[in-house]
Amino acid sequence: MMSDSVSDKNVEIHVENGNEIHNEQSKKSGDDFVDPWNVISSSATGVDYDKLISRFGSSKIDDKLLQEIERVTQKPVHHLLRRGIFFSHRDMYEILKRHEQKKPFFLYTGRGPSSSALHFGHLIPFVFTKWLQETFDVPLVIQLTDDEKFLWKDLTVEEAQRLAFENAKDIIACGFDIEKTFIFSDFQYMGECPQFYQNVVRVQRSVTFNQVKGIFGFGDSDSIGKIAFPAVQAAPSFSSSFPSIFGKKADIPCLIPCAIDQDPYFRMTRDVAPRLGLPKPALLHSEFFPALQGAQTKMSASDPNSSVFLTDTPNQIKNKINKYAFSGGGATIEEHREKGGNCDVDISYQYLRFFLEDDDRLETIRKEYTSGELLTGHLKKELISILQKIVAEHQERRKLIDDNTVKTFMTPRRLKFNL
């Protein structure tokens, strides 16, 4: 069953022939601009995700799908699903069908290691992926694209590898099961596993230069490394890239939780997969975690004041939220009491949507802030206490992770699951 609103081939043609033009028109007209490296919106409320679903050709996660997930898993859906933060999908019904039939699938997500510390935006896919792993009891592969960051950032190979190793510690601290999780660095794994590189080359031969330019907007002055890289991100979608985990089985599909800006990689992958005789990856797309300064852009690891990092002290967290978190409240207390606050643009409230798990408490905050009863300072205070707790607990878990633990997670091996 294909859950995409249009066929992948049609999406591919649309992207190839129109995406560069559309992106240039978007920049000029003030429309949203989204690619794997940039997210820009002219609206204070951020990206229009319904338009993005239409443009990318994915399917909206609706109440029907949420009910089906709960029916199949016999568990309540995660609050990131309930609140529409994961809002779009490709072939999730197929994954649910496989799970119900007791057929295997695996999870695949990743991280581009461009900084030594993760920020809260980086946490979203890992928090949700951990829930997926526990709920469906399936193996997980996590790709660290140190090669990508070497190609795009001013990093040496050695520095990119070091950052990947450090980021792995933060990822492990999220609580992943060591018996069901394989974390790998592209620089390292490419040399260890010929089957992985073989799949990279199979994808590379299947995508033309014109297609990759159309999908990703590459220009004539971009390095050939950038042009070839998308195939490296595509390869972990296939179980045959992990013979130590899946043996010779090449027919096990994967589910990829990721932010919507990563979808171009997997539209390309889904177009190529049938031609390689391999299953298409399924996807769950999340909204962007907004920068402290507002929802027009996603946060940047290179700007320490655009986000709260997992290395921040309690005082740094407090100062960042109080000083930089964009407010949807009135200019004065009197104005706020009279007109109320705007939760759609208020960053503190938006952060609570991601990290406050109590639905009733979140709704109370929304009503009180919208009515003007709750002041911006009190809203920020509530957020600060939640973020400080999350960071403190994460830092304690990370202290327990030594280099040997990381090396175990990053060693190709048989994982614990039923084929």
Biggest beta sheet summary: 7 strands, mixed
Q: Which parts are unreliable, with pLDDT below 50 for 5 consecutive residues or more?
A: 1-29
- Per DSSP E runs of 2 or more residues, the count of β-strands stands at 11
Helix percent band: 40-55%
Radius of gyration: 21 Å
Distance between the termini: 22 Å
Given the helix and strand composition, which structural class is it? alpha/beta
Mean model confidence by pLDDT: 89
Helix count equals 21
Question: What would you call the shape?
Answer: globular
Oligomer: single chain
Q: How much of the polypeptide forms β-strand, as a percent range?
A: 5-15%
Summary tags:
single chain, 419 residues, alpha/beta, seven-stranded mixed beta sheet, two-stranded antiparallel ribbon, 21 helices, 11 strands, 11% strand, disordered N terminus
Characterize this entry briefly.
The chain is an alpha/beta fold. It has helices spanning 8-29, 49-56, 63-73, 79-82, 92-100, 120-136, 146-152, 157-172, 186-192, 194-206, 209-216, 224-228, 230-234, 243-246, 263-272, 314-324, 333-339, 347-355, 359-371, 376-399, 403-409; strands at residues 33-34, 39-40, 59-60, 86-90, 106-111, 140-144, 181-185, 254-259, 282-286, 290-291, 294-298. It is built from 21 helices and 11 strands.
